[in-house]
Amino acid sequence: KVKGGNIDVHPSEKALIVHYEVEATILGELGDPMLGERKECQKIIRLKSLNANTDIGSLARKVVEECKLIHPSKLGEVEQLLYYLQNRRDASASAGKEKKEKTSKPKDPPPFEGTEIDEVASINDMDEYIELLYEDIPDKVRGSALILQLARNPDNLEELLINETALGALARVLREDWKQSIELATNIIYIFFCFSSFSQFHGIITHYKIGALCMNIIDHELKRHELWQEELAKKKKADILLIYPENQTLKKDYEKTYKKYKGLVVKQEQLLRVAIYLLLNLAEDTRIELKMRNKNIVHMLVKALDRDNFELLILVVTFLKKLSIFMENKNDMVEMDIVEKLVKMVPCEHEDLLNITLRLLLNLSFDTGLRSKMVHVGLLPKLTALLGNENNKKVAICILYHISMDDCFKSMFAYTDCIPQLMKMLFACPDERVDLELISFCINLAANKRNVQLICEGNGLKMLMKRALKFKDPLLMKMIRNISQHDGPTKSQFIEYVGDLAAQVSNDEEEEFVIECLGTLANLTLPELDWELVLKEYKLVPYLKDKLKPAGSAEDDLVLEVVIMIGTVSMDDSCAALLAKSGIIPALIELLNAQQEDDEFVCQIIYVFYQMVFHQATRDVIIKETQAPAYLIDLMHDKNAEIRKVCDNTLDIIAEYDEEWAKKIQTEKFRWHNSQWLEMVESRQMDDSEQYLYGDDPIEPYIHEGDILERPDLYYNADGLIVPDGAVSPDIFGDYQLQNGDLVGQHPFSG
């Protein structure tokens, strides 16, 4: 009995799928059912003539008449499905085209030489094909080729899947006979590859351990290829060394060997391609990928990069790209000198191979050592040349961006035509915001002085400033800020833009943009710049003071830039006085209290004090009206070297102008320098049992009740080492030695 079921459209082809059920029953002698079995089946009706002009009604009637599985009552449903297929055609075609452009997955392998035969396989003759797998090698090749023909049609895969005999026989033959025939191995692996294209069939491949077998085959074939090459090289060497006419036989022998080698390589690459593709499909599961890694898949793939076959190389590089996201795999690639092999493929006439190679290089460029290697093998000019290639421009910029992160390589960009191209791309961007990759790359390059000279050539700076101010782009302004940090002619070009930048510093603008504008202004340490005029004209003093409030709403980044800006303008005598008068110094001390854990803040605030003690007006305010020197004394011994350095320089200036503070600073320096000795003396003074250790008189608490520098009795005198006139007797050094302030010698010390 046959019972009709649902009708669906084919997911990818112009076809209808008719589902039906077959029920077979064995009847007994009396006609009653003894044994029954049901099987669900499907029939595919391909509609090759269906196009935009097809009469759907006529076609639906024809389908129902010719297919006995569809009941006439379903005519309306068939019409609807055909109408859907008719409208889907263009959309699916364009989607397919778009997908083809975007996807980086390699194409399925075509039928290889040896896999195509004249016969047309039928799913009903599977038993015959299985029997062929038990015969000699030529019959096995024929049987596997016929099964492969069926497996290449996805509609047959489920049917083949339930035929355990066939799959078991194929796995056995592959395991036993793969070394005897490369065509046989290729056919059988190709059959399993067809299954591997669908995730739900991966279990059957794992069950028969086809993945592990493929890895053994790949390893063996790569080693065989090395032996062929060695043999060929020996024959070629002999041919070159013996160039006499009587050695024509040797020459012919070499040509014959070379021809045979080329034929073997073609067949071997077919096998490698299908085996690697099968493994790539299985590697969807990271657990299986880890097993492959443990079996040295990375080394095998990197070895395969020496091949010339584009299709095989695309597959190998795609697999390596997938593996490269794990650090262990990346380290294996480093061992195999992968960068040297990949650099040969850039540039490359095969667009797909070039694109996937660049993507692999991008993954590898996250490693500092590999970036260095890329530069040393000459990849920089090659990538720069690709900036004009629309398909690969974005990936090339990303790799170059990674290289530009290392300071030692930034200057190398000045010796390529990279910067003019980037500037052209920057100004050609139609949108408000420039591509993130492009502007990030430019920001890095602007951190190098030689690059900046090239960027500012002609009207470079003017155009950058114009665009940044027009679109209020913080990233573009960050690039300008980097440009402004370099001394020389480029910094002088900023004088005409000081007013434009100062005008942006207000509460109305976006904070990120204001931070970059302030940072750029803070870099302009130009003696010819009248900062007092700028501060007054653009009313910046109230803005700067307002942002210094610790409890304010401003972000730390903005507050830090305000402090740096104050440090820059404080270099000007009149500006420093203006700021001091406005009460900015107490605000800075308050901020110093609030941000004492942040080294950057502390360092910049101390630098402001350093600038202000240079000027008479502000020096008196800092020394006499604030507690700034006391804070500086506390920070003299900070763990941060930069903070200590700025502190010392500032305190030296304060000590020069104020005697009282000079004494305090000197005392603190002495105390710090001799802290261990002083602590020891203090602790002994506090111990009652050892109160008069050094004589009959108690020791005074010297720091609290007197100045340490005015206590000559603490130094050695005539009773000890130093004679009254200050001369030292040579005999002393013969008998006694000093160790850490204690006397050590042969004779007991006596007064």
From TrEMBL:
Residues 93-110 have a biased composition (Basic and acidic residues). SUPFAM superfamilies: ARM repeat (SSF48371). GO terms for molecular function: kinesin binding. It comes from the Eukaryota. Gene3D superfamilies: Leucine-rich Repeat Variant (1.25.10.10). SMART domains: ARM, KAP. InterPro entries: ARM-like, ARM-type_fold, Armadillo, KAP3. GO terms for cellular component: axoneme; ciliary transition zone; kinesin II complex. GO terms for biological process: cilium organization; microtubule-based movement. ARM repeats lie at residues 583-627. Residues 93-115 are annotated as: Disordered. This is KIFA3 protein.
